[in-house]
Write a structure and sequence with these properties.
heterodimer, A: Rossmann fold, de novo design (two linked rop proteins), 3 domains, four-stranded mixed beta sheet, globular, B: Ubiquitin-like (UB roll), Alpha-Beta Plaits, Rossmann fold, 5 domains, six-stranded mixed β-barrel, 35 strands
C-alpha cells in the first residue's frame, strides 16, 4: 500500500493557498470545472455516495445519503457550511478556513451544484475574526474570477454564498440551532422531525455540511470515489484531520488516513509523550467524547472503531492527558463548559448540567462527598439520551468514563479533601527547589 | 379512513388501537385513557419537545422517545409504564425540582399544579440535592396583569409560545441562557397583551400568576359556575370561580366552536367592579334633583305609575336589551308591547343598526378555513379579540388574505392589506364590486375595485366581518355575496355587536318593527333616535332604559343629552352609576350576569346558557325580576315571569321558525332611520373629520369602575395625521381640546401614519371625554383643535 499523502492539507505551511493563483497552480478549481462541465448533479451525488464519505462534523452521517434526502418538490434548496467549530479540543476547520479558503469555496460550489441549491451560507464562528476576513477576501476573489456568482465557470449554474458570523454560542454548531441563528433568531436546536432536509433554513430543504466534509468533495470529484474509499476502512474511508492537543511533544493538526491507531498517531505524528510520562486518558473526539485509555491505544481512529469502544471520533479533537492530569479537574473543565453553553431549552441538560457542575466543582475543591459520587454514577442514566439535542448528551460521557476507570482518584478527592496530585506536585516542586 | 386520513394500528401498554396517521403518541394514548404527563406540550400549540417528561419506550428504538412529537406508526409498540420510562420521568422531575422553591403552601397554583401532581404520581420521594438551591427573581412585575416567579418557572415556554403561535404578538421571550434563563419581554417593557391572562392558565406551575387572583384563594375552596362572557359579542365560554359568594376569578371553559379555549383580559378581569363602592346596591329615587336610596317597592310603584300614565297618552319609550340576557330582552319587549301597548322599543343605543346579516350567516369557525377575510367597520382586535385570534391563525398559518376596507389602518399582528375608503363610501364600493363580479370583469374596476374584485374572485371561501352600522353597505354586501355564492364561492358574514348581547336582543324582538324571532309585526314603533328626538321635543313623557348607556354610546350626543334632560320621567336599570343613570328619576340596582341565569346569543347567533355563580346583594334584583314587578304593578302580572326558565320556553318557541329557516331566506330587517350624511369637514373652521375608534378597555359602567381594568385603561386620546398635527402645532403627548358644533372634549394628542390626512381618530366610549359630543347620527363628526388649549402634558402634570 502506498504511503499516505496528505489531501486536504497538501501544501499547507509551504504554500500560500490563500492566493488564488497559487491554489489554481496546485490544480485548484479543476474539480469545479470538471463537475460543472462534465457531470450532472446526480453524477456528483452518486460519486460522493460511492466514496462512502461520512460527515466530518461529528455525527459521521454518510454525506451522499444526506444529499439524497432532499425532496424533489420545486422549493428552493439551501446549502449551509458549518464552520462554527467550537468543540473543545478541535481546531481543524479553523486552520482550513484561514489557510485554504478556496478549497472550502470549491467544495461549497460543487456540493451546491450536486444538490441544486440556489444559495449557500457560510456560517463562521464569531471568534474566527481573522478567518472570516480571509474567507471574505477569498470569496471576493473567487467571485471576480467567476467561481462564485452567476453562470459559474461558463456553466448554467449560478450560486451566491452568504457569509454569516456566529456570535459566540457553542450550541450554534448544532445544525438546526445554526439555521435558527442564520434566520436571526435565538440559536437553539429545533425539534426534529421535521429534519432540515425537508424543512431547514427558512423552512426550505437544506443540507448542512461541515467544512472538512465539503473540502473532501473536490478531491472525490477529481480523483474518483474508488480512490477515496481505498483510504482507510471501507465503511468510513478517506483522509481525516485530527487535532492533537494536550500532553504530547508536538501538538497540532495532522492529516491521517481514517482508522489510524491512536498509539500510532501519538508516536509517529505527535512526537509521543514527554519523557518519563505515562498516558492516563485520551479524549478521541472532542469534549463530548468518553475517554479511552492506555489499553485502547491500538483502537483505530474512525467512526465505527471508536463507537465500538463506547466513544466517538466526533469532530476529531484528540486530547491527550498524561499522568500529571487530575481527571476530576479535567472533568470539571468540561462539565462547566457544557453547563455554560447549554441553551436551556430542555430540562435534563439545563438543570442536570448545572447540578453536575456544582457536584464536580465541590469534589475538585475537596468539599465533595461519597453521596456526590453515588449520584454522579447514576446520572448518565437520566441525563444522557433524554435530551432534545446532543449537547445534553455530552455532559456525562467523559466524566462517567474516567469515574469508571479511575474511581480511586475521585474517592481520594473526598477522603483527602482535595487533589492528591496537587499534593504530590507540591512535594515534587518543593524537592526541586 | 376518517376524514381522508389513513388509519394506523399500534399498541400502547398492551392495548391495540387504531388512530389516523399523523396523530401524536400523546394524543393517541389520551384516546384510550392512558395518561402521559406533559409540561411543554399543549394541544393548541406546536410540539416543542422541551420538558422531556413525556418520555416513553418504543420497541426497536434504543432511546426513550418523547410522546409529544412522535407520530404514530403502523405496528408501533409503546410502553408508558415500564421501569425505564419510570426512571426517565423520575429523572426529569428530579431535575425540575432541584432548584424549585417548593413554596407550595403560598403558591396560587397549589392544588392545581402539574408539578405537584406529577411529582406525587411519578416523582422521586426525596431530593438528592445537598447544596443550597439556586435563586432567581421572585414576584417580578411582568405587566399590568401578571406577576412572574422565576424560581417556580420550569421553562416549558408555553407562555412564550402562546404569545408567538396563538396571539402572534411576539412580545414574551426567554432571556439569558441555560439554567439562568428567564421569561421576559422582547423590548424589556411591560407585557401588555389583551390575552395575557391565558398565560396564567397554561402555565403548568405557579410561575405566572394573575394580579387579580394572587393570594386570594385555594383552588379547592372555589365553587364553579359555567358561564358565558358578555363583555363583547363573541360569547366566550368561561367558568366563574367564587368563594364565600364572592367572585375570585374567571377561567376558560373550552368551546372549540367559539373561543377555542381562550378568553381575553377584558372578559377575564371584569368582575371586581361588583365589589366597588360605585356598585349600585339599592334602588335610587331622585328627590329635589338628587338621587336618594329607596326601597324596591317604592321604585317599582313610582316607575309603574309614570310609565302607565305615559303609555295611556302613547308617549312612552323603552331603550335597551343589548346588555340583558335573551330572556330579559324578551321580557323588556313584553313590557313595551304587551304591558304598555307600545312598539317604541329599541335595543340600539349606539350607531349599530343590525346585529345579524340578512343571509349567509357565518360561524366563528368559518374563519378557520377562510381564504379571504374582508373587514369593514369592525375593529376585531378591540371589539372581538378572541375572534381576532382565529383571524390571526387563518392568516399566519393557513395563508388567508386579510383585507381591511375603511378610513384608517387598524391594528394587525399578521400580514394584512388596508384599502383606504372614506366613511360613507363603503356602500358604493360594495355596489361597484357586485357589478364587476356579476359581469366577470374583475380586472376592469376603478381604483381598488379591481384589486378587491380579483381577490374575491380568486378566494375559495370568503368571510366578511362588519359592525352593522351602515345599512346601505350591508345591503350592498349582501348583493355582492349573493353574486359570489352563485358562482359557488362559499361566503359568510359575521356582524360584530356593539353590545355583548346585541344579537340576542335583536332576536328577542327589541326592535320597533319585529317581534321575537324576527317576526314582522306589520307596524312599527319608534327607533331609539326617534324616541330621543320625541323626548327632546317634549313628545315623550317617560323613558325606561335597561342595561344601556346611550348618553355615552349614542352617536348624536347632543340629541341624547337634550332628550334625557327634557323627558319628564326617566327610569334606568343599571349595575353601576352611568352617564345615563345620572339623568334618571328612578335607578334600579340590577344584577350582573354572574348573579343570574339565562341565555345569551353571540354574534354568530349561537344561543348559549349561563348559570348563576353568586348571589346578588340583597336589594339588587335581576332585570327579569324588575320587569315582572313592573308588569305586576301595571296590573298585568301574567305577562312577564320573573323566572328565566319560563321566559325562555316562551321565547324559544317564537324563535324556532327563524332558526330553522333556509340560510338563503333573508331574515326580516330591523327598521332603520334615514341615513344622515357624514359631516363635511369644510363646514367647520379648520375642521377635521372625527372618526371614533373602539378600544378593548374603553366604555362606561363596569369598564370604567373595575379596579382590575384600571391599569390597562387608556386615557382619552385622539390620533392625528402627523401633517395635520404639525399644521395645528399639536405634538405627541400634548393635551388638546377638540371643539365641534355640538360640544368639546379634552384629550391627549397622538400622531400616526395610519390616520388619513384631514381626519382625527378619537377614542370612543370614554366618560371623561365622550366622543359623541363631536359626532352626529352618522357616527362621524367634525371638530377643530382649539388652539388656545394646546398645552404640554408636562405643564399639566406640574
Amino acid at each position: 500500500m502506498a504511503p499516505f499523502e496528505p489531501v486536504l492539507t497538501r501544501g499547507l505551511g509551504r504554500l500560500d493557498l490563500t492566493d488564488l493563483s497559487v491554489y489554481e497552480a496546485q490544480g485548484g478549481f479543476g474539480a469545479l470545472r470538471k463537475a460543472l462541465r462534465d457531470m450532472t448533479p446526480e453524477a456528483v451525488v452518486n460519486e460522493v455516495s460511492a466514496s462512502n464519505l461520512r460527515g466530518r462534523g461529528g455525527a459521521g452521517f454518510p454525506t451522499g445519503r444526506k444529499w439524497s434526502f432532499l425532496p424533489n418538490d420545486g422549493r428552493p434548496r439551501y446549502l449551509v457550511c458549518n464552520c462554527d467549530e467550537a468543540e473543545p479540543g478541535t481546531f481543524k476547520d479553523h486552520m482550513l478556513l484561514e489557510q485554504t479558503p478556496f478549497q472550502i469555496i470549491e467544495g461549497l460550489v460543487i456540493s451546491a451544484y450536486a444538490i441544486r441549491a440556489e444559495r449557500a451560507f457560510m456560517y463562521i464562528r464569531g471568534e474566527f475574526l481573522e478567518g472570516y476576513r480571509i474567507f471574505r477576501r477569498a470569496l471576493e476573489t473567487a467571485r471576480e474570477r467567476g467561481y462564485v456568482g452567476p453562470r459559474i465557470a461558463g456553466s448554467d449554474f449560478s450560486l451566491d454564498i452568504v457569509v454569516h458570523r456566529g456570535a459566540g454560542a457553542y450550541i450554534c454548531g448544532e445544525e438546526t440551532a445554526m439555521l435558527e441563528s442564520i434566520e436571526g433568531k435565538r440559536g437553539e436546536p429545533r425539534l426534529k422531525p421535521p429534519f432540515p432536509a425537508n424543512a431547514g433554513l427558512y423552512g426550505m430543504p437544506t443540507v448542512v455540511n461541515n467544512v472538512e466534509t465539503l473540502c473532501c468533495v473536490p478531491h472525490i470529484v477529481e480523483r474518483g470515489a474508488q480512490w477515496f474509499s481505498s483510504i482507510g476502512p471501507p465503511k468510513c474511508p478517506g483522509p481525516k484531520i485530527i487535532s492533537v492537543s494536550g500532553h504530547v511533544r508536538k501538538p497540532g493538526n495532522y492529516e491521517v488516513p481514517m482508522g489510524i491507531p491512536a498509539g500510532q498517531l501519538i508516536e509517529e505524528y505527535a512526537g509521543g509523550l514527554e519523557p518519563g510520562r505515562r498516558l492516563k486518558a485520551i479524549q478521541p473526539g472532542g469534549g463530548s467524547s468518553a475517554a479511552i485509555f492506555e489499553e485502547d491505544l491500538d483502537t483505530g481512529l474512525d467512526f465505527d472503531s471508536l463507537a465500538a469502544k463506547g466513544t466517538m471520533l466526533g469532530s476529531g479533537g484528540f486530547v491527550v492527558m498524561d499522568d500529571r492530569t487530575c481527571l476530576v479537574r479535567a472533568a470539571l473543565t468540561l462539565v462547566r463548559f457544557f453547563e455554560h453553553e447549554s441553551c436551556g431549552q430542555c430540562t435534563p441538560c439545563r438543570e442536570g448540567g448545572q447540578w453536575v457542575a456544582r457536584m464536580v466543582g465541590r469534589l475538585e475543591a475537596g468539599e465533595g462527598s461519597n453521596a456526590d459520587l453515588a449520584i454522579l454514577r447514576t446520572l448518565n442514566r437520566t441525563l444522557t439520551g433524554t435530551n432534545l439535542c446532543p449537547l445534553g448528551d455530552s455532559i456525562m460521557p467523559f466524566l462517567s468514563s474516567v469515574l469508571r476507570r479511575f474511581p480511586e482518584e475521585f474517592e481520594t478527592h473526598v477522603t483527602q479533601a482535595g487533589c492528591p496530585l496537587a499534593a504530590e506536585q507540591a512535594v515534587a516542586a518543593g524537592a526541586g527547589a | 379512513m376518517t376524514n381522508g386520513r389513513r388509519m394506523v394500528r399500534l399498541t400502547i401498554d398492551g392495548t391495540s388501537l387504531e388512530v389516523p396517521e399523523g396523530t401524536l403518541l400523546v394524543e393517541a394514548a389520551k384516546s384510550i385513557g392512558v395518561h402521559i404527563p406533559v409540561y411543554c406540550y399543549h394541544p393548541k400549540m406546536d410540539p416543542a419537545g422541551l420538558c422531556r417528561i413525556c418520555l416513553v419506550e418504543i420497541e426497536k428504538m434504543p432511546k426513550l422517545q418523547i410522546a409529544c412529537n412522535t407520530q404514530v406508526a403502523e405496528g408501533m409498540v409503546v410502553h408508558t409504564a415500564s421501569s425505564r420510562v419510570a426512571e426517565g420521568r423520575r429523572g426529569v422531575l428530579e431535575f425540575l425540582l432541584l432548584n424549585h422553591p417548593l413554596d407550595c403552601p403560598i403558591c396560587d397554583k397549589g392544588g392545581e399544579c402539574d408539578l405537584q401532581d406529577f411529582t406525587l404520581t411519578y416523582g422521586p420521594g426525596a431530593s438528592r440535592l445537598t447544596e443550597p438551591k439556586l435563586h432567581k427573581p421572585k414576584a417580578v412585575d411582568l405587566g399590568p396583569t401578571i406577576v412572574l416567579d422565576e424560581e417556580r418557572c420550569i421553562l416549558c415556554r408555553r407562555c412564550t409560545r402562546f404569545d408567538n403561535e396563538i396571539t402572534h404578538e411576539r412580545r414574551l421571550i426567554v432571556v439569558e441562557r441555560g439554567h439562568r434563563s428567564l421569561i421576559g419581554t422582547a423590548d424589556g417593557k411591560p407585557y401588555t397583551s389583551y390575552f395575557s391572562g391565558n398565560t396564567t392558565e397554561i402555565c403548568p406551575v405557579g410561575a405566572l400568576t394573575s394580579k387579580a387572583y394572587r393570594f386570594r384563594s385555594r383552588p379547592w375552596d372555589l365553587s364553579h359556575a359555567d358561564s358565558v362572557c358578555t363583555q363583547c359579542s363573541v360569547g366566550c365560554n368561561y367558568r366563574i370561580d367564587s368563594r364565600f359568594g364572592r367572585i375570585m376569578r374567571t377561567y376558560t371553559r373550552e368551546n372549540p366552536a367559539v373561543d377555542d379555549g381562550w378568553i381575553c383580559d377584558r372578559g377575564r378581569y371584569t368582575f371586581n367592579y361588583l365589589y366597588e363602592p360605585s356598585r349600585l346596591r339599592q334602588p335610587l329615587i331622585a328627590v329635589d334633583g338628587e338621587l336618594k336610596a329607596a326601597t324596591f317597592d317604592e321604585a317599582i310603584a313610582l316607575t309603574a305609575e309614570k310609565l302607565g300614565r305615559a303609555a295611556q297618552a302613547r308617549r312612552v319609550g323603552i331603550i335597551g336589551g343589548g346588555r340583558l340576557s335573551d330572556e330579559e330582552a324578551f321580557a323588556l319587549q313584553l313590557l313595551a308591547r304587551d304591558v304598555l301597548g307600545s312598539d317604541n322599543i329599541d335595543y340600539r343605543a349606539s350607531a349599530q343598526k343590525y346585529a345579524s346579516p340578512p343571509r349567509y350567516e357565518a360561524r366563528l369557525a368559518d374563519i378557520d378555513d377562510a381564504s379571504l377575510i374582508l373587514i369593514f367597520g369592525a375593529v376585531t382586535p378591540e371589539q372581538a379579540p378572541i375572534a381576532d385570534l382565529r383571524i390571526r391563525r387563518a392568516v399566519a398559518r393557513r395563508h388567508a388574505r386579510l383585507l381591511f376596507v375603511g378610513p384608517f389602518v387598524p391594528p394587525a399582528f399578521v400580514p394584512s392589506r388596508h384599502v383606504p375608503y372614506a366613511p360613507g363610501e363603503i356602500a358604493p364600493l360594495m355596489r361597484a364590486l357586485a357589478d364587476v363580479v356579476h359581469h366577470g370583469r374583475e380586472e376592469q374596476g376603478e381604483g381598488f375595485v379591481a384589486e378587491i374584485a380579483q381577490a374575491l374572485a380568486q378566494a375559495e371561501k370568503i368571510i366578511a366581518i362588519h359592525n352593522g352600522r351602515d345599512p346601505q353597505a350591508v345591503e350592498a354586501l349582501d348583493a355582492l355575496l349573493d353574486r359570489l355564492a352563485q358562482y359557488d364561492h362559499p361566503v359568510g358574514v359575521l356582524v360584530v355587536g356593539a353590545a355583548g348581547n346585541a344579537r340576542g336582543a335583536e332576536a328577542a324582538g327589541c326592535v320597533p318593527n319585529l317581534g321575537p324571532g324576527y317576526a314582522p309585526l306589520g307596524r312599527t314603533g319608534m327607533t331609539t333616535a326617534r324616541m330621543l328626538d320625541a323626548a327632546a321635543r317634549g313628545e315623550i313623557d317617560a323613558l325606561f332604559i335597561a342595561g344601556a348607556n346611550p348618553a355615552l354610546t349614542f352617536p348624536d350626543g347632543a340629541l341624547v343629552r337634550r332628550a334625557l334632560e327634557r323627558v319628564e320621567f326617566l327610569a334606568v336599570s343599571e349595575q353601576v352609576m352611568t352617564e345615563t343613570a345620572a339623568y334618571a328619576d328612578v335607578v334600579f340596582a340590577a344584577a350582573s350576569f354572574a348573579e343570574k341565569s339565562g341565555h345569551v346569543t353571540n354574534l354568530e347567533g349561537r344561543q348559549q346558557p349561563f348559570h348563576q355563580a353568586v348571589e346578588p346583594p340583597v336589594q339588587v334584583a335581576t332585570d327579569a325580576q324588575i320587569l315582572a314587578a313592573l308588569a305586576h304593578a301595571l296590573g298585568k302580572p301574567w305577562v312577564i315571569s320573573a323566572e328565566p326558565a319560563v321566559l325562555f320556553s316562551q321565547l324559544e318557541k317564537m324563535q324556532r321558525p327563524a332558526r330553522t329557516r333556509s340560510s338563503r331566506d333573508p331574515l326580516p330587517r330591523p327598521c332603520v332611520d334615514d341615513p344622515v350624511p357624514v359631516p363635511d369637514p369644510a363646514s367647520w373652521p379648520d375642521g377635521l373629520t372625527v372618526i371614533p375608534i373602539p378600544h378593548l378597555y374603553a366604555g362606561g359602567g363596569a369598564a370604567a369602575h373595575d379596579p382590575g381594568l384600571a391599569p390597562m385603561r387608556p386615557q382619552p386620546f385622539a390620533v392625528f395625521h402627523p401633517q395635520d398635527a404639525q399644521q395645528r402645532g399639536v405634538a405627541d403627548g400634548t393635551r388638546v381640546r377638540l371643539r365641534g358644533p355640538g360640544g368639546e372634549i379634552e384629550v391627549q394628542a397622538r400622531t400616526g401614519d395610519h390616520v388619513p390626512p384631514g381626519s382625527v381618530l378619537v377614542l370612543a366610549d370614554m366618560p371623561e371625554a365622550p366622543v359623541n359630543k363631536l359626532t352626529n347620527a352618522s357616527g362621524y363628526g367634525v371638530a377643530c383643535v382649539d388652539a388656545a388649549t394646546v398645552t404640554a402634558s408636562q405643564e399639566l402634570s406640574a
